[in-house]
Write a structure and sequence with these properties.
Elements lengths: L3 H10 L13 E2 L5 E3 L2 E5 L16 E5 L2 E10 L12 E8 L4 E8 L4 E10 L2 E8 L12 E6 L1 H4 L3 E4 L3 E4 L8 E3 L11 H10 L2 E3 L3 E3 L1 E4 L8 E5 L4 E5 L9 E6 L9 E7 L10 E3 L12 E6 L8 E7 L5 E8 L4 E3 L2 E7 L7 E7 L2 E2 L3 E3 L9 H10 L5 E4 L2 E4 L8 E2 L4 E2 L5 E2 L3 E2 L2 E2 L20 E2 H17 L7 E4 L4 E4 L7 H19 L6 E3 L3 H4 L13 E2 L8 E2 L2 E2 L6 E3 L4 H18 L4 H20 L18 H4 L39 H5 L8 H10 L6 H12 L3 H5 L13 H22 L16 H17 L7 H10 L42 E3 L3 E3 L8 H4 L3 H18 L6
Parallel strand pairs: 30-39, 32-44, 41-43
Antiparallel strand pairs: 1-2, 2-3, 3-4, 4-5, 5-10, 6-7, 7-8, 8-9, 9-20, 10-19, 11-12, 11-16, 13-14, 15-18, 16-17, 17-20, 18-19, 21-22, 22-26, 23-24, 23-27, 25-26, 27-28, 27-29, 30-31, 33-34, 35-36, 37-40, 38-39, 40-44, 42-43, 45-46
Helix pairs in contact: 4-19, 5-6, 5-8, 5-19, 6-8, 6-9, 8-9, 8-12, 12-13, 16-17, 16-19
Length: 904
């Protein structure tokens, strides 16, 4: 018997449309996915990532009303798999236009399980089926099932309906009972750190919170409502957040024993709004514009949208009313990926004030036109994000403690030789006088947490030092909002101490690099967590370890003074390479020049160490370690952070693969062979090998005011560094050496800039936004920030050749003039900004002010995505500390440009 409240709820959630998918007729497109107006289905346009494995953007994916509601549709061996759990090997995929069908051929070779995943158009939606080559192996009964994962932020708090009778709400907090699910017999052996991780978590899985033959999701939301019916096994709804905060809701059916064809059959019916078109998106700068410079908004439009040919600028008056200030034409629409784009130029609006842009039925948030529009755009990155990422100190802001003094028990030399998680690798069991497991003295100083995790990535440390040193010197950056007391290991925000924040941050980073040279005589790979339990830690970094030095003679829970029996001390990966060596020299030289007059003793040690390292490297060049250039991280994210990368093994069930090795995708000879080609990583990074000592020579030339042999090396390298793509990559930095170049070299540099500019506009016209596109695994905001910096320095050196608008265009992009939405990529900066970032506080659905996120990516083949309401996709939301340091330079550059005499 139903209670009155339950009956009311049932009536409420079932009162919507009952004609699911009535207007949906799916067709295979020229880009090989199933599509209808308002609904799209992709199938393995992307594969599992070679480093991070499950990024929530592969297998079967669904886009409904302009939102990616579901991903990872495929056979899995767990109800709620985590990032490193086993995935199938993709053998091939094809699209059949005549049949309007997508098919992927997959296998779990270890278990002798082969199958096809077929998604076929049918009236009202799609039919999804799993067809086995032979009946399910006995050991997989009750374990193998078809999973489809749904985005939590779209469904939390919304209703679902099971079999048309049982209603419920998607929980905001996971609360389901957990059970133990042990590894399968014969399951591929995992890397030791994955085995340890599973044991530490207790092999737990949640029980389903709903079960039935038909489940309708988002019943009370017209934009996300979708119904799924199973012809075979029951549908079960799980909450993947029970195992990890980045989990999704999982819809699952177990594969029944004894069946082959049609072992799983689902019918998916999206409730598509008839003739739905995506509302126009007006991309603009969320901090506003300077009066005398270009003001161009970009309109992102649905190809089926028919709208006005003009847009308006309205001024927000003191009484809250709006007064039209300008109306002008939009440009003809230009297609790019799945949308079309028009531009709206309102440069003529110059009067200071608050404004909005209005187009069709859309109106933006208010933004200012003011001469100091960019003055505060960079400050939160310096005084908040970079400060809050500081390791080995506590960080306090008013009543709030961001974290305590962390990792005071750093560190021991990595005791395991070989590859670890996240691409880290220790090449040798010894380094100088140290052997694996030895404590390395003095390493619990300086450095910054790299990103949403807590490791000290060497490229990031060197990058931050160089960028903040550059900002400090170029813009005479005296900004001071921090108290930094290194002796007390304490930092406090909003408390000036008379020393510029940039100077103190450079000193903090240099302390970590100098400690490496004191201990090893060279740079290192960095300091990293010893296990995945620490690596996945969220919250206060000081609670990650006990802060006491590990003593193997003590019991596991025994404490004696500053020592304990807990082996939680982080590991030093001391393996270096030529690039790290030369970049460390450059960073120390830049630090020396910045610290002069503030801490002369530290400046002297930085310069002396850099000069000695230069001489040592010239006399005995560092060789590339066995196994290649060990840079770690994601190769495709590297330009944003100024780092190189190597891949990490993914948990793919491939014949002969090492535990976690990625299997290549075998191309298919079918009608549409769609297997993606591997990116040419080696060729992409070949340019790093040219003039590895370029930055070091340049920084030492500046730090020593033109001393030899550094100045001569700059002159020697100049021709190759300003030639071709090197000009865009690193050669532009030659303008900083202009005082040390002769007339003919300056002329040569000028001609190189002319050549660079001649091809630049054509290159940047590849997207409607006039900046480098984001076409790789991680969002491309870093490349745009690099453009802003590069174009500023070229403009400053050659103002007749390089317009300042290039820098402002790139900065405006970061601040909101980009695809998908107009949210500022700098958290907390601008009227509408990111307020959920993949930072160490992401478990609270929060952000760190000033953090710069990667931004949109392309969900292949053509769907740009940048979620605002979900901060757990690292490729869209993870803010690296190096990105914030670069943004400080870019923001200061924009501010400096708008202080110039403004054009009439």
């Amino acid at each position: 018997m139903h209670s009155p409240m339950r009956l009311c709820f049932l009536l409420a959630v079932t009162s919507g449309s009952s004609l699911f998918g009535a207007n949906v007729a799916m067709r295979v497109t020229d880009t090989n996915y199933l599509d209808a107006q308002g609904f799209s289905v992709f199938l393995y346009d992307s594969t599992y990532h070679p480093v991070f494995v499950d990024q929530k953007n592969t297998a079967m994916e669904m886009i409904l009303h302009g939102q990616r509601i579901a991903t990872n549709g495929d056979v899995r061996l767990m109800p709620t798999p985590e990032q490193w759990d086993l995935v199938a090997t993709l053998k091939g995929r094809q699209a059949e236009k005549a049949a309007n069908t997508l098919t992927a051929t997959l296998a779990f070779p270890t278990f002798d399980l082969g199958y096809t995943l077929e998604v076929a158009a049918e009236p009202g939606g799609v039919r999804v089926s799993i067809n086995l080559d032979k009946p399910l192996p006995e050991q997989l009964a009750g374990r193998a099932g078809f999973n489809l994962e749904f985005l939590p932020s779209l469904y939390m708090g919304k209703a679902f309906l099971v079999d048309g009778a049982t209603a419920g709400l998607f929980p905001r907090t996971p609360e389901d009972p957990m059970i133990k699910v042990l590894p399968l017999a014969g399951e591929p052996k995992k890397a030791y750190y994955l085995e340890d991780w599973d044991k530490a978590k207790g092999y737990t899985q949640p029980l389903p919170f709903a079960t039935g033959k038909t489940i309708t999701l988002g019943v009370n939301d017209a934009l996300t409502r979708v119904s799924i019916q199973s012809d075979t096994a029951d549908l079960m709804l799980f909450d993947g957040r029970s195992r990890a905060q980045n989990g999704w809701f999982v819809l699952r059916s177990l594969i029944p024993a004894g069946k082959t064809k049609g072992a799983i059959v689902w019918h998916i019916r999206p409730d598509v709004i008839p003739n739905w078109t995506r509302p126009p998106m007006i991309a603009h700068s969320q901090v506003g514009y300077a009066p005398g410079f270009a003001k161009v908004a970009v309109l992102e439009l649905d190809p089926n949208f028919s709208g006005p040919k003009t847009a308006k600028v309205l001024r927000l008056m003191e009484n809250g009313s709006y007064k039209q200030a300008f109306e002008g034409p939009i440009t003809p629409a230009t297609p790019w990926l799945r949308y079309v784009y028009s531009k709206f130029d309102f440069t003529s609006v110059r009067e200071p004030g608050l404004y909005v842009i209005e187009y069709a039925d859309q109106r933006t948030a208010a933004f200012p036109i003011t001469k100091d529009a960019y003055a505060n755009s960079w400050k939160p990155s310096l005084s908040h994000h970079i400060a809050i990422q500081m390791d080995h100190v506590s960080v306090r802001e008013g009543y709030r403690v961001w974290h305590g003094a962390s990792h005071l028990d750093d560190a021991i030399l990595a005791p395991v030789v070989g590859e670890q998680f996240d691409g880290w690798n220790q090449a040798a069991a010894t380094d100088g006088k140290f052997k694996g497991g030895d404590r390395i003295p003095g390493m619990n100083v300086g450095g910054w947490y790299d990103a949403g995790d807590f490791d000290l990535e060497e490229p990031a440390q060197l990058n931050v030092i160089q960028h903040l040193a550059l900002a400090s010197r170029e813009f005479d950056l005296k900004y001071d909002q921090l108290t930094v007391n290194e002796a007390a290991r304490a930092v406090e925000l909003h408390r000036p101490d008379g020393i510029p924040d940039a100077v103190q941050q450079v000193k903090h980073g240099a302390a970590y690099i100098l400690a490496q040279y004191r201990a090893f005589g060279h740079s290192i790979r960095g300091t990293h967590e010893p296990d995945l339990r620490q690596y996945t830690h969220l919250g206060d970094g000081a609670t990650k370890t006990d802060g006491r030095i590990y003593d193997p003679n003590l019991g596991p829970d025994e404490v004696k003074g500053e020592f304990s029996g807990k082996p939680d001390d982080r590991w030093i990966f001391s393996t270096t390479n030529p690039l790290f060596q030369w970049q460390a020299i450059a960073a120390l030289a830049a630090a020396a020049d910045t610290l002069k007059g503030w801490d002369d003793a530290a400046a002297k040690e930085c310069l002396d160490t850099a000069i000695k390292a230069w001489n040592d490297e010239k006399a005995n060049p560092t060789s590339t370690p066995k196994g290649g250039w060990n840079f770690g991280g994601d190769p495709e994210a590297a330009p944003a952070a100024g780092v190189l990368a190597a891949s990490q093994g993914a948990a793919t069930d491939a014949p002969g693969a090492q535990p976690g090795a990625v299997s290549p995708v075998a191309p298919t000879s079918s009608t549409a062979a769609l297997a993606p080609a591997a990116p040419p990583a080696a060729s992409r990074w070949a340019r790093f090998r040219v003039g590895l000592d370029w930055a070091a020579a340049l920084e030492l030339t500046i730090a020593t005011k033109g001393a030899e042999p550094y100045k001569s090396r700059v002159k020697e390298l100049l021709p190759q560094m300003i030639d071709g793509e090197q000009m865009e990559f690193r050669g532009w930095m030659a303008v900083r050496a202009l005082p040390y170049l002769d007339a003919s070299e300056k002329a040569q540099l000028r001609e190189a800039v002319k050549t660079h500019m001649a091809g630049l506009d054509k290159e940047l016209a590849g997207t409607p936004f006039g900046v480098p596109p984001s076409l790789r695994t991680w969002g491309g905001s870093g490349a745009v920030v690099d453009m802003a910096i590069r174009m500023y320095f070229l403009h400053r050196a050659f103002p007749d050749l390089v317009n300042p608008e290039y820098t402002l265009r790139a900065v405006n992009y970061i601040l909101g003039t980009h695809p998908v939405n107009s949210t500022s990529y700098v958290a907390g900066v601008g009227t509408v900004s990111k307020t959920k970032t993949y930072s160490f506080n992401r478990g609270d659905n929060a952000y760190v002010p000033g953090a710069v996120v990667p931004g949109y990516i392309i969900i292949k083949p053509d769907f740009p995505e940048s979620l605002d309401d979900f901060g757990f996709l690292w490729f869209e939301h993870e803010a690296v500390v190096a990105g914030s340091a670069a943004w400080v330079v870019a923001g200061c550059a924009a501010e400096a440009i708008t202080r110039e005499v403004q054009p009439k």
